[in-house]
What does this fold into?
Amino acid sequence: MANKFYDIAIIGGGASGLMLAANLNLAGRSGIILEGSGKLGTKLLMSGGGRCNITHAGSVKEFLIAYGNAGPILRKCLYKHNNLELIEWLHQQGIDTVEENGRIFPSSMKAKDLLNALVSKATANLWQIETNARASALKKEEGLWNIGIDGPGSVIASNLVIASGGITYPETGSDGSVFSVLRDMCISVNEPRPALAPIYVNDYPYSELSGISVSDVIVSIRKNQRKVKSMSGDILFTHEGFSGPAILNISKYAEAGSTLGLEYKKELSELPRRMQRVIEDRAKGPSGDIRTKVLEALLSCDDFIISGVDPRGMVTAGGIALDEIDFSSMKVKKFRNESAHAQGTGALYVIGEAIDADGITGGYNLQLCWSTACTAADSLQFC
Ligand SMILES: Cc1cc2nc3c(=O)[nH]c(=O)nc-3n(C[C@H](O)[C@H](O)[C@H](O)COP(=O)(O)OP(=O)(O)OC[C@H]3O[C@@H](n4cnc5c(N)ncnc54)[C@H](O)[C@@H]3O)c2cc1C
It folds into this structure.
């Protein structure tokens, strides 16, 4: 691999890097995927508990809401490469899909089928794929990217795509190390933190309810008495803390020391029986009597001080700042206009979870990989 030249190099062989390669036929050009770990698509294989909730049904308007403040900024690429296009592409690869409550899965319920399809299409598109090729240094010299690979060796590329994911589950290879390399190049990276993660609180009273879930709960985060965010949905009690969709979706706003408030939209008698017992115990006074006012308060605003968020979030909030990126091409603006030896060389692209955008649960994060990867593929078509 030493000093070999490629037209395009992608750092990261996860969902987004592979989606780009599967959508860009190199025909007469050269391209390489540098995957730092020994395996491709490890996180993709974990998605949806191995079943891979690949996208969501519904209109693009609904998608924009799922990404919070980033939604309107992502608009261009979400419209251009939407969920219907992704589903159609899967069908073309022989992967049928099913819908469960709006969530789209491969009918086989196997993430492996999707990974196989991406790898075989990328290979058919003439991409060279190297595993155990961890990029540890980046330099731009005379309009070309020099990518230092751990161990002896480097790759020279005309165009570079960052598809290195976020920081959660670092054992999969997504350890956020590329962020510090980018910061050294003065590209702003917003502090990455776990999202879609369980929340832990002080004096958690529900360990014994582990595995029980409750629907229709309004969950809120408050900091210094001010509401930061509120959402509603199902929550799940685990042995150590709160989980379930409403908790996962709000977790990126949670910080140690902030308050997590839970408001149950049910009467005590409508809650799971074991939970009723725990709540009644919590409402008992020193004499053992249930204090009605305390009981009402536990149902209408049960507040906990947050002790932390599980670092093993399904996704990363934070990452490469959105204002660094041109969303019609996924190019980093700073390098887009830089003069280079030949027109179209020297561009830097970013796709997937590495950018500072993340969706709620339901297939929105893999759709983001698809939309950003295909947008970059369109642009790289002409490089
Ligand atoms: C348990 C779990 C369940 C999930 N379920 C779903 C779901 O059902 N639906 C959904 O939409 N999303 C889900 N997600 C999120 C989704 O899987 C990710 O958002 C998506 O896989 C991100 O893809 P990516 O290619 O951008 O990043 P990654 O998948 O993280 O891939 C990045 C790749 O880059 C490599 N890399 C990193 N640094 C370097 C380097 N320096 N040099 C070379 N290579 C490097 C890594 O090894 C990795 O292979 C889930 C995530 C988890 C963890």
Summary: Residues 199-309 form a domain with the Elongation Factor Tu (Ef-tu); domain 3 fold (CATH 2.40.30). Residues 364-380 form the longest helix (17 residues).
